[in-house]
């Protein structure tokens, strides 16, 4: 009982996108970088409230290439309250939902830029399900997330556990409320991890 209440509280706190007026900078966490060419790149993201989609679109504007939104066969409800009732159980049970999204030519991509909101300190079940559906051995993965105060939390570790034979690059964490204004931080991150080259 207490565990369930605690998980619900954590989800509510971490799902929330802060409405404060402070200009919190995005956090770029150090990690591996690409020293040569990133090769063919796929931007893939899951977005419930729209913030992760905004950041994904900033990335797409900066580097072009292919972009895919992960969609579930049975989507989450539209209301925040209903999602906070569902998400704790999914995280606790390691649930992987069925997805509508399929990438038939995954072998062609050398680098994946992977975006997710942070729910309960973790990668969303939808993104975990997507990553688990492919053999991503030998590929670069550049993680980014939107959050309400947790930073990347356990999401990068979650990606490592699902993709143990991929090279995980440095990550980007953007406050949900700052997604619209994050383009400069996104550009800096892409340069730091070697995807966007300075001319």
TrEMBL record:
Provide the GO MF annotations for this entry. Answer: electron transfer activity; FMN binding
Q: Which PROSITE patterns match?
A: FLAVODOXIN, FLAVODOXIN_LIKE, PROKAR_LIPOPROTEIN
Q: Name one Pfam family in it.
A: Flavodoxin_4
List, alphabetically, the InterPro entries matched: Flavodoxin/NO_synth (IPR008254), Flavodoxin_CS (IPR001226), Flavoprotein-like_sf (IPR029039)
Required co-factors = FMN
| Signal peptide segment | 1-22
Question: Which SUPFAM superfamilies does its entry note?
Answer: Flavoproteins
- Organism superkingdom: Bacteria
The UniProt keyword set, sorted, is: Signal
Residues of the Flavodoxin-like domain: 41-194
Q: Does the keyword Signal apply?
A: yes
In its UniProt entry, what is this protein called?
A: Flavodoxin-like domain-containing protein
């Amino acid at each position: 009982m207490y565990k369930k209440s605690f998980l619900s509280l954590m989800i509510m706190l971490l799902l929330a996108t802060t409405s404060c007026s402070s200009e919190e900078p995005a956090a770029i966490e150090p990690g591996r970088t690409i020293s040569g060419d990133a090769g063919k790149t796929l931007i893939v993201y899951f977005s419930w409230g729209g913030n992760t989609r905004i950041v994904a679109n900033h990335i797409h504007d900066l580097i072009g290439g292919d972009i895919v939104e992960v969609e579930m066969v049975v989507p989450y409800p539209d209301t925040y309250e209903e999602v906070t009732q569902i998400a704790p159980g999914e995280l606790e049970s390691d649930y992987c939902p069925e997805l509508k999204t399929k990438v038939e030519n995954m072998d062609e991509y050398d680098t994946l830029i992977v975006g997710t909101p942070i729910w309960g300190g973790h990668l969303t079940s939808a993104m975990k399900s997507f990553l688990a559906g492919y053999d991503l051995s030998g590929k670069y993965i550049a993680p980014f997330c939107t959050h309400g105060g947790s930073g990347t939390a356990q999401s990068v570790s979650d990606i490592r556990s699902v993709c143990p034979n991929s090279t995980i690059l440095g990550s980007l964490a953007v406050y949900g409320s700052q997604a619209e204004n994050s383009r400069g931080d996104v550009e800096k991150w892409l340069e730091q991890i070697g995807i966007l080259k300075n001319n």
